[in-house]
Amino acid sequence: MRIAMWSGPRNLSTATMRSFGARADTSCVDEPFYAAYLSLTGLIHPMQDEIMASQPDDPKTVIEALTQGPVDTPIQYQKHMTHHMVDGIPRRWMKEVRNAFLIRHPARVLTSFAKKMDEVSLEAIGFPLQAQLFDTVCNLTGQRPLVVDSDDILAAPEDTLRKVCHGLDIPWDPQMLSWPSGPRPEDGAWAPHWYESVNASTGFAAPPGPLPDLPDALKPILDAAMPIYERLARYKV
User: What tens digit of pLDDT does each residue of 109-127 get?
Assistant: First the structure.
């Protein structure tokens, strides 16, 4: 089974990849469209040269690997960023994998994202494309994909991950609750910039506290993201 988990940045996506990677039956792929996204948009991101050297930037090559490439384990977990799926990257291939969506309250996303990036926008945090991709999967498969909220994982890791496994038709594995600290072989070339916190972890963090207060400059983005978050949150496990 090839599982494509669609997340925006700062959505607990790497910790969730760590969780699936702790399973003996699962191998992981980290943001395979990152180089293609940068190539198509012309954007400059931290560790740009390392990213471009580490991955193919041709979307068709990436898609072929994700859908037909060899996998050494019964399950392949693909960690995807929704904002990477810009125009120029085909989507029909999504019918060939098992899709799921990892969501997070936009106030938490914005607070975390702004600590790492100077420019923050609705598109950069991935909410519009997450909604589009959700609809794409519904239209391609005729079924509503699984949705999981990162706050629920932090509040009740075992209960929520059991539901995720059930929804994906894979067995529950208690190994998903912890992992060794440090980097992993599957980590993308950008890991030194983004993964400091998760590399120090051995499991999921404590349950989230109250929603953070945002500076005025970020509040219009929050207002635009909230309807998207609330729409997808209606379907969460």
Answer: 999 888 877 788 999 899 9
Q: Specify the amino acid at residue 177.
A: L
The Cα 179–Cα 15 span in angstroms is: 9
Q: How far is CA 66 from the centre of its chain?
A: 15
Asked whether the beta carbons of 49 and 232 are under 8 A apart, the reply is: no
pTM tops 0.85 = yes
Comparing CA positions, the residue from 43, 12, 2 lying closest to residue 160 is 12
CA–CA gap between residue 208 and residue 174 (Å, rounded): 22
Do residues 204 and 177 make contact, with C-beta atoms less than 8 angstroms apart?
A: yes
State the chain's mean pLDDT as an integer.
96
User: Residue 40 has which token pair?
Assistant: 């198509």
> ∠90-65-97 over CA atoms, to 5°?
65
CB atoms within 10 A of CB 181: 11
- DSSP letter assigned to residue 121: -
Contacts of 74 (CB under 8 A, 6+ apart): 1, 25, 26
DSSP letter (8 states) at residue 176: G
CB 59 within 8 A of CB 88: yes
Amino acid at 96: E
Backbone angles phi, psi at 142, to 5 degrees: 75, 10
Which residues face 2 on adjacent strands?
A: 76
How far from chain centre, in Å, is Cα 191? 14
